[in-house]
TrEMBL record:
Gene expressing this chain: OR4E1
Single Gene Ontology BP annotation: detection of chemical stimulus involved in sensory perception of smell
Places the protein is found: Cell membrane
Coiled coil: none
Protein name: Olfactory receptor
Provenance organism: Bos taurus
């Protein structure tokens, strides 16, 4: 009898409404202009990094191999949410189909989790390079790098499948409005017509635990690196500190969002949208800024690439 009542009360949801960043039209137009610029710069910057690393044989090292992976992930990560958000600023309804919502959640968590694992691997790469330089090419051989890349992409895929499969199985009914500008598991499961307490615990134990554990590992890695740097000469110390500071900035901004969102119950806070903006639009843009403008090797390789391109245009 109870199941029959539940079925009668449950409406099959075929789409959701995204609330967006604001209901104020002026704010939405300002957000459109700002995020369009962010997105274009993200694409240009990260694609240039990938092309430069592929083009310059001097950058065919483990560090830049992982950096090219990071740039590729940032392009994909930003593309999952920002184009839809830009389109929705011109729409009053801001609808997204159920299938599109699930697809967005899957790829969002795929790229986010893969990036978390990648940042951890990059920290390990810097640890070996700084603390064990004589063993670096043995420990971080190309075979090891490829295996690590396959492992982190596989881990991200398994994580994403686990979360989205939990979300798909839930029954959904009115209200159908998601309090954000993209679909994410915590906001979507709040619309389910059933008790989601156990699923929320699984999300915290999955996404939250991954974020916290990786963050702790990263902090410990950099602590060991900083201790090791005390024994190096000033020039080597300065360059290593610069690299580690850039990496740690990215880690803090990216993992800070994941810990804030996924390490607590699925409750909406006013800060959620602000944090989500940094997660989806700002952080992917910081990668080319931090890793290119602060890296002499990348700047030299980029200048050489631009010089060859201009030379071909003149011919």
């Amino acid at each position: 009898m109870e199941e029959a009542v539940l079925l009668n009360q449950t409406t099959v949801v075929t789409c959701f409404r995204l609330r967006g960043l604001s209901i104020n039209q002026n704010v939405q137009m300002a957000a459109f202009a700002m995020f369009l610029v962010f997105y274009v710069l993200t694409l240009i910057g990260n694609i240039l990094i990938v092309i430069t690393i592929i083009d310059d044989h001097h950058l065919h090292t483990p560090m830049y191999f992982f950096l090219s992976n990071l740039s590729f992930i940032d392009v994909c990560h930003s593309t999952v949410t920002v184009p839809k958000m830009l389109i929705d600023t011109w729409s009053e309804e801001k609808l997204i189909s159920f299938d599109a919502c699930v697809t967005q959640m899957f790829f969002l968590h795929l790229f986010a989790c893969t990036e978390i694992f990648l940042l951890t691997v990059m920290a390990y790469d810097r640890y070996v390079a700084i603390c064990k330089p004589l063993q670096y090419m043995t420990v971080m051989s190309w075979k090891v790098c490829v295996l690590l890349a396959v492992a982190l992409w596989t881990g991200g895929t398994i994580h994403s499948i686990a979360l989205t499969s939990l979300t798909i199985k839930l029954p959904y009914c009115d209200p159908d409005e998601i309090d954000n500008f993209f679909c994410d598991v915590p906001q979507v499961i709040k619309l389910a017509c059933t008790d989601t307490h156990i699923i929320e615990i699984l999300i915290v134990s999955n996404s939250g635990l991954i974020s916290v554990v990786c963050f702790v590992v990263l902090v410990v890695s950099y602590a060991v690196i900083l201790v090791s740097l005390r024994q190096q000469i000033s020039e080597g110390r300065r360059k290593a500190l610069s690299t580690c500071a850039a990496h740690l900035t990215m880690v803090t901004l990216f993992l800070g969002h994941c810990i804030f969102i996924y390490s607590r119950p699925s409750t909406s806070l006013p800060e959620d949208k602000v944090v989500s903006v940094f997660f989806t639009a700002v952080t992917p843009l910081l990668n080319p800024i931090i890793y290119t403008l602060r890296n002499e090797d990348m700047k030299n390789a980029l200048n050489k690439l631009m010089g060859r391109v201009k030379g071909r245009e003149k011919k």
